[in-house]
Amino acid sequence: MDLSVRIASLHLRNPLIAASGCFGYGLEYADMVDLAGLGGIAVKGLFLKEHDGHPPPRIVETPSGMLNAIGLQGIGVHRFLREKMPELRARRAVVIVNICGATLDEYVELARILSDEEGVAALELNVSCPNIKEGGITFGCNLDATFDVVSAVRRVTRLPVIPKLTPNVTDVAAFARASEDAGADAVSLVNTFLAMAVDVETRRPKLSNVMGGLSGPAIRPIAVRMVYECARTVKIPVIGIGGIATARDVLEFMIAGATAVQVGTASFVDPFIWPKLIDGIREYMERHGLTRVADLVGTLRLERSTDDGSTTGCA
Amino acid sequence: MKVDVEAVVRSNTRLSPHFNVLALAAPAIASQAEPGQFIMVRTAPGDSPLLRRPYSLFEILRDPQGRATGFSLFSKRVGVGSQILYDAAPGQRLACLGPLGRPFELVTPPGRAWLVAGGVGLAPFAALAEALLARGIRTTLFYGARTGAELFCLDRFERLGVELVLATEDGSRGEAGQVTVPLEQALRAAAPEPQVTLYACGPEAMLKAVASLASRYGRPSHLSMERLMGCGVGGCYSCVVRVRDADGGSHYDRACVDGPIFRGDAIVWE
Predict the structure, then answer these.
(1) Is A66 close to B2, i.e. CB distance below 8 A?
(2) Residues of the domain holding B247
(3) Residue A176 in contact with residue A167, Cβ under 8 Å?
């Protein structure tokens, strides 16, 4: 059974990628997860410099989901390369570095630095963090700015370039198209939904930053819809993200058009989730007589059914 | 090595309408666990509630041969997750990930240990007291609550040989006022005696007061910091505590991997 998928020049052993911001720098999980067994690891978003993040509380649970406003706390690209990259290389992890900048020049500088580094497999451009202005959201909510930042990074790197898109726009497919036009190799979506929760007893916001990003199973149907819209709009691969917690969820995103997926919140709940997802995908492939998981991508059936009775009598 | 096990509820002792001690069989965690560490408990399968909850190890349970067989959690019913733990029945299974975090640093003889607990902050201290007394450390528990009825497990600590100093906000038992009142009296009285180390867990205002008293009286303090957590293993950066840098600045550390135990003099109170 072939679980591998391809994102431009990037060969992934399977379609499962640890989502940025949900898996530290990967090494936090090295005693629980075979890092080389994952399709890839999107490490925590990096700026050029160290970044402090927001005061706690940074997280709050909501129905079937959670809000976070971490504020992109991070060690910066130089410390990452010095302190984390050697061990990630030694563990043969497929490292996708998520980069954040306040300006276009910062994205370009980060892309230059990382392109020279052995073991960096791809760049994910964070143009979608809802929690800080400098997290690229100003790029990610404007079509021209998205086009500009993707093309600027494209010009300075041979690594696959993957803008991570925000769902906090009216027409996410237009942003996928702008990314494709600018030379992106793939797009990943969705980042979290801008959201808010209030403690009615104290009348205070539950997050120090007031607003935060909603993730988890609560957002999954919206994310599936957005992945579907993007996948039918662009020719480049789409990486699906949003509330994936079971193998069925992975398959749902792939059928809707995702070539690979990212898992975030669910790995908080179960850090040992990865082999369980793989087993579930294999079981499905066996049951459906599939030999290559890539054959499942974008196979949503839209023809009206005549044999399951669900449409009869509705004419 | 962290493990995720389906721990079986052995007993659930409801101490009051709000507090309970839940004992769980989980040798794979208990055999590695040290006082001050915590467990991420999945209170229900599925999405509701979604995230695991962090709980300090209250006791490490042992069989008659002394082998660690499980642990207990000291819990206060405040939300959906703790309600499930309050209602849990023997035989029920709960996924438990652990042991997690850095344990308490134990003093060595002839040092003395003063444990300071406020309310549900008693949570890490049965295991700590047991480990300290096993080393021959003279151990005192300063324990404060709102009322005398909310001072729990006193016999448990007395049996171990812990000296108790109690305080209640309504004055119904022990000193009237917060637990830091008798603590300060004792620190003042003990001033010439060396080698008292403070261990504290409770509301953040109490921890801040303990850290400040510790520094005023020149005692080391180790604080168990409570934070909302997403993962418990360092992945999400939700549970941060502001700590001092060597160069005079400060940064956020993660309570789950850099703590939950922090030196009182390292913390920058926000």
Answers:
(1) no
(2) 226-270
(3) no
